[in-house]
Amino acid sequence: MTASGGRRPEEKQRGPVVLRREHRNESTTTDQRLLDSRGPSDWVHTDPWRVLRIQAEFVEGFGALAEVPRAVTVFGSARTPRDHPEYEQGVQLGAALADNGFAVITGGGPGVMEAANRGCSEAGGFSVGLGIELPFEQGLNDWVDLGINFRYFFARKTMFVKYSQAFVCLPGGFGTLDELFEALTLVQTKKVTKFPVVLLGVDYWKGLYDWIAGAVLDGGKVGEKDVALLHLTDDVDDAVKVVHEAYRAWEDVH
After folding, report:
1. Which one, out of 10, 28, 39, 127, has a CA that is 20 to 30 A from the CA of 120?
2. 217 vs 165, 169, 242, CA distance in Å?
3. What stretches of 73-215 show up as alpha helix (H) in DSSP?
4. Which burial class, exposed, middle or buried, applies to 187 when counting CB atoms under 10 A from its CB (0-12, 13-18, 19+)?
5. DSSP β-bridge partners for residue 200
6. How far apart are CA 220 and CA 223, in angstroms?
7. Rounded CA Rg of the chain
């Protein structure tokens, strides 16, 4: 269903291209064809041309997002139904960030991503969605004001980090975990600075947090400063406060 209550035709995103109805049925994705080294050797001759497509994704992303105001990226499950408390928390987070002058960036899909975009948009904020080509239908949700569809995960990830001042992670699956640990690695290695990572949802995240603060820290695999990169909370206002404090610290050195 769309925001206006009408029914949207089933669709698939292939980079900036939208495929609908029977045309959406494709057996592979662009990422898959790039990374899969099996099969005929003609990839040796076609990969150099793929560099141009990859370059185009970066150029398109940089150009479209250059004027985005200060922003926060919100991650979470695409599978969260609209009647779930986590969806409502996502709406509240999006609205709170908008009320505090932050744009909201998500993966542009349904579930928690839609919730954060919706809360931001309904509060009058700037709502951004960075979609990705997947083998199943998804598409950008209806509360995205500025949307970009990517073919390659690595180009999309660069945009998430480059154009936001913080990550807030609501409960999610492998995609959320991937983005969470990518952000932590970039901060730990000082590739990005003054970049808080907030885990919103204590019951969901506590097991992971305790494992990092316990087994991983006790085993000498990370330091106490690394554990301190994570902020665990149930409170939307507390999450926004962490974002504000980090942004003020960033402003002090820029």
Report:
1. 10
2. 26, 21, 23
3. 85-99, 112-122, 153-162, 174-188, 202-211
4. buried
5. 233
6. 7
7. 19
Give the closest residue to 198 by CA, choosing from 213, 179, 216, 217: 179
What number is the average pLDDT over the span 77-87? 97
Structural tokens at position 26: 């494709």
Which tokens sit at 90?
């996502």
DSSP 25: -
60 pLDDT more than 80: yes
* Nearest to 165, CA basis, from 74, 83, 82, 235: 74
Q: How far apart are CA 146 and CA 156, in angstroms?
A: 14
The Cα–Cα gap between 143 and 96 comes to: 16
Q: How many CA atoms lie within 13 A of 170 on its CB side?
A: 30
- The partner residues of 132 in beta bridges, in order of sequence, read 150
Q: 3-state secondary structure string, 100-121? A: CCCEEEECCCCCHHHHHHHHHH
What is the pLDDT at residue 169?
98
Q: CB within 8 A of 231, min separation 6: which ones?
A: 196, 197, 198, 199, 239, 242
pLDDT band at 80 (very low <50, low <70, confident <90, very high): very high
Residues making up the chain, counted from first to last: 254
